[in-house]
Amino acid sequence: MAVRDFGQKVDVCRRIKEVLKNYEEGSLLKEMVQNADDAGASVFDVLLDLRTHGSSELALPGTAAFQGPALVTHNDAVFADSDLESIQQIGGSQKAGSRSTKTGRFGVGFCSCYHATDLPSFLSRDFLVVLDPHCAHVSDNRSEPGKMLCFLENPKTVASSRDTFEPYRVFGCSLQHSYPGTIFRLPLRTAEQAAASRISAQPFVGAPARGLLDAFLELLPELPLFLTHVHTVTVSVWEAGAAAPTLLRSLSTRDTKSGAPPQRSRVHELVAARSDLRSLTPSQSISQIDVRVSDSAASPSAARWLIVQGMGAGRALEICLDPACERYGLTPIPWAGVAARVMPTGLATEGRPYCLLPLPSATGLPVHVNGFFEVSSNRRDIWHGDDTIGGGRLRSEWNIALLQDVLAPCYAQLLLYARSLLHGPAFYALWPSSKPAEPWGSLVAAMYRLVLDQPLLRCEADGGSWLSARSAIFADGGGFELPDAAREL
C-alpha cells in the first residue's frame, strides 16, 4: 500500500487578507503601540519616511521595489526570543495562551501592518528580519516566508549591501553595535505592488499614509491614559530631499505629584505573579497624570487626568475562577479603571472604552473606562449581546461583571476624590446625566447604587456641607437636578 503525506495547509496571504477584514486601517499604529507597551518600552516613535533609498547594493535583490517611502516606528525595547516566535504565528501568539496583562498579539494584531505593505521588516539587537508572505521577494520557501540577517556577524556584508541597511539608520541605529530597541519599517504599497498583491489591492502611498498619520495625531492626547509603560510618543515626517526629519507632535506623560513618568506596572505585576486569584483582595489606586502635547503647528497643550484603577471581586472574580474560561480561551482579570479630565475644565469628554488603548466606539459617559474586556474580533467594541450559550454568553457575562463589580466602584471612588479638585458644574459634569445604551447602562446603574449614600452633593446652606443623594431634598429651581439615571433607582 502506497503512503504519502497529506493534510490541510494554510495559505499565508489568504489568512492575512482575512485578518485585515477585521482590523481597520486606523488600527495599525495602535497595534504597534500595544506591542511596544507589552515589551516594556517607555518611548514610541512614528516616522513617515518619504525618501527613496538606493537599490543597487542589496543583500536581498528582490527588495529593490521596496526602497521607497515607508512608515517607520521605533520603540526602546528589544525584540525578545518569545516575540520572534509570536510574530511567526498568524493565528495566535505567545501572549494569548496565558493569564497576563498584555494586550498586543503579534500573531494577529501585527497583521494590521499589511494594510500598508506587503513586505514588513524589523531590526532589533543584532538582526534584521524581512517578512515575505508572498514568497516572491526574499524567499521561495513557503514554510519559512522570510529572511533573518545577523548584521553583526559579518560587517563586510553591511558595507557591501549598504542600500539594504541605509533605511534603518534612524533613531540612533548605527549598525555597528547591538541595537537596544526595535525599528519596524513598512514600505508603503505602490499601485504596481497593489495590482500584484494577494493581500490587498489598495495602494498606501500618498493620501492613505497621510490620513493614517493624521488620525494618530488626533488620537494622541488621550492615547497614554492607561498604558503600562509607554510615556513618551513622537510623530515625525522625513520629506524627500530633506536632510533630517521634521517633528510634527510629541507627547509626554508625567505623574502630577512627582513629575516623573507614571509608575503604573504595579497592578500588572501583582496579577502576573498570582497563580491563584482566590487570594485576591479588592483594592484601588488613585493617581493624577499630566499629559503634555507639543505641536509644530500650534501652541503646546496640557491636560490633567484623575485616574482610579482597581481590582474587584464578586461575580467578576467568580468568572475568573470558572474552568469554562480556559475551555473557551478566555483569560479574564478583574482589573479596570476610570479616567476623568480635571484640567482644563469646561471641555466635554466623549467617553470611550479602552483595553489599555482606546477602542473606536463611544460609551455615552463623560469619562473614559478601561478594563480587560472581551472585545469583538475587529477590536471596535466590547463583546455584548444576547448570547445564550457557550463562549459568547460567557464573554458577555464577563464584560457585565467587569462593569458592575470592578468599574462601578472605581467610578464611585473617582467622584468622591474629585470633590476636592473640582467645584460646581465642573464636578457634576463627571456624573452621567442619563443612562446610556447597554452594556454601559449597567455600569451607570451599579455606580449610582454605590453613591446614593455617599456625601457627593454640595449644599451651601449653614456654611456648606456635603450630603448624600438619599438624604438630600431637591428644591424646584435650586440649580441642581439629580440625573435621570440616578432617579431611576
TrEMBL record:
SUPFAM superfamilies cross-referenced by the UniProt entry: ATPase domain of HSP90 chaperone/DNA topoisomerase II/histidine kinase
Source species, domain of life: Eukaryota
Gene Ontology molecular function, alphabetical: Hsp70 protein binding
Protein's name according to its UniProt entry: Sacsin/Nov domain-containing protein
InterPro entries found in the cross-reference section: HATPase_C_sf, SACS/Nov_dom, Sacsin_chaperone_reg
Signal peptide range: none
The Sacsin/Nov domain, residue ranges: 10-246
